[in-house]
């Protein structure tokens, strides 16, 4: 999954990205870094299933990692996370972001 964040060009400051998308829990996310998008979850409400980002077997999230600094006003940033595929009949999932809430009914492609 890829997602983008566009920062308002009229914002006074950038958005500090350090732990914006992380879950802060090395047992469920990225063991080596709190500066990743390991807190972004895919939620299948109909099946009561939550998908966590995949890891490489060493505890490293297969996702955007080592996030540092500010997301600057007027810029757009792309992040990614890898998840197990949902069943073929699933056409939409909710995407839960740690600091922003949930985006409902995102199409699965």
Kindly summarize this structure in a few lines:
The protein is mainly beta and about 110 residues long. The protein is built from no helices and eight strands. The strands form three sheets. The chain has a four-stranded antiparallel sheet, with no helix packed on it. Strands 1-6 form a two-stranded antiparallel ribbon.
Describe this structure as you would to a colleague:
This protein is mostly beta strands and 109 residues long. The protein has one domain (1-109). It is built from no helices and eight strands. The protein has strands at residues 2-6, 15-16, 41-44, 49-51, 70-71, 76-80, 92-97, 101-107. The radius of gyration is 14 Å and the shape is globular.
Helix and strand layout, with pairings?
Layout (H helix, E strand, L loop, with lengths): L1 E5 L8 E2 L24 E4 L4 E3 L18 E2 L4 E5 L11 E6 L3 E7 L2
Antiparallel strand pairs: 1-6, 2-5, 3-4, 3-7, 7-8
């Amino acid at each position: 999954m890829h997602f983008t964040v566009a920062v308002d060009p009229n914002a006074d400051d950038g958005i500090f990205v350090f732990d914006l998308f992380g879950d802060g829990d090395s047992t469920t996310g990225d063991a080596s870094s709190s500066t990743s998008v390991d807190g972004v979850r895919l939620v299948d409400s109909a099946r009561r299933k939550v998908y966590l980002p995949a890891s490489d077997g060493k505890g490293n999230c297969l996702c955007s990692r080592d996030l540092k600094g500010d997301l600057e006003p007027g810029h757009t940033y792309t992040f990614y996370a890898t998840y197990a595929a949902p069943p073929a009949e699933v056409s939409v999932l909710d995407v839960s972001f740690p600091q922003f809430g949930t985006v409902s009914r995102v199409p699965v492609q």
